[in-house]
Amino acid sequence: MRLQKYILFIAICAAIVSAHAQDTIQKTIGDIYLSAPLSECAMLTPEQRFELIEYAKVGQHDTITNFLGGKSWMDSINTQLNYLKIHQTENTTLELLLKNNEMLVVKTYYAPLGSSNVAIYNTQWQKIRDIKIEMDDCENLIATFVTAKIDNETIVLENETLKQIFDIEKTKYKDCPKTQIIPLPF
After folding, report:
1. Is the pLDDT of residue 14 over 80?
2. Which residue range is the domain that position 147 belongs to?
3. Inter-residue contact 72 to 64 (CB < 8 Å)
């Protein structure tokens, strides 16, 4: 009798663990984007995010009015790759890539030169770690403004600093790398 209770207990525990694992696996990039806290996605309410996802599902990339009165739109969403890119404003983008229950989050701000922040989060939007993005220095030119974009299995870094140097100095830095490709951090 004790053995039967023990086996029943083990079976129930296994079922609970299996159900939890399936629930975690079934979350889509859209679900995770919808669950983003306002601290991570302050320009749009969850209802507005849902609206953008629904537009994208039918192939429309309509704009909606964000919290600041500007325009926001979904640039792309790929549910097979668990990837999305949204323009939260005309000068800010948010990219999400879900892989192995971890999410790569790239926030890029343009004012007018671009600068990105990259971090890894879990599916509950708890930050696991920041990813420092640096480009190789060239001729003592420090790449202060660097943007990051997710591209398949890599992150493409672009040196925005080169856009602000004077024409007279451009020949000095003509051999500096404009882009650099790094592997995904997971």
Report:
1. no
2. 2-183
3. yes
Residue 10 has what pLDDT?
61
Q: How far apart are CA 53 and CA 96, in angstroms?
A: 13
Sign of CA dihedral 24, 25, 29, 31: negative
List the beta bridge partners of residue 86.
74, 94
**Number of domains the chain is built from:** 1
Q: Cα–Cα distance between 42 and 13 in angstroms, integer?
A: 39
Write down the pTM of the prediction. Answer: 0.80
The letter for the amino acid at 89 is T
What is the rounded distance in angstroms from the CA atom of residue 172 to the CA atom of residue 108?
A: 28
Residue 36: which of 48, 26, 25, 24 has the closest Cα?
A: 48
Tens digit of each residue's pLDDT (9 = 90 or more) over 131-157: 988 887 776 777 778 999 999 889 999
C-alpha radius of gyration, the chain, whole number: 21
Q: How far apart are CA 186 and CA 173, in angstroms?
A: 33
Q: State the Cα–Cα distance between residues 34 and 51, nearest whole angstrom.
A: 10
Question: Tens digits of per-residue pLDDT, 86-115?
Answer: 999 999 999 999 998 999 999 999 988 899
